[in-house]
Amino acid sequence: MPVPSNGVTNTWWWPVWKVLKADTQRQWWVQCESVVGHVNLYRHFGDKQALDKAQRCWDYIKTHLLAPEGEWYWSADEQGQPNTTDDRTGFWKCPYHNTRMCLETIEMLP
After folding, report:
1. pLDDT (0 to 100) of residue 55
2. Helix 48-60 vs helix 28-45: angle between axes, to the nearest 10 degrees?
């Protein structure tokens, strides 16, 4: 595959949809933000379907992403099998997304 140049007049564009593959894993942080977002929809607009979606996402997290020894797996595949090779903890993981989800949800729900 040719290397693109940095010049304005001598550039090319590679159709990325021909080389990209869909990422079907369910990553921990996306699940956290989904819960927070749906609880916010419920809180601000009274959308009971959003609250149901937040609950279903939390159920998915408990079933597929929480490790029995503690912390969360990085992700799960389409079948719900946890990714046991990537890190379970990190600077953005526990202190930010996981904790934020729990604290904001506690604060928002009656």
Report:
1. 96
2. 160
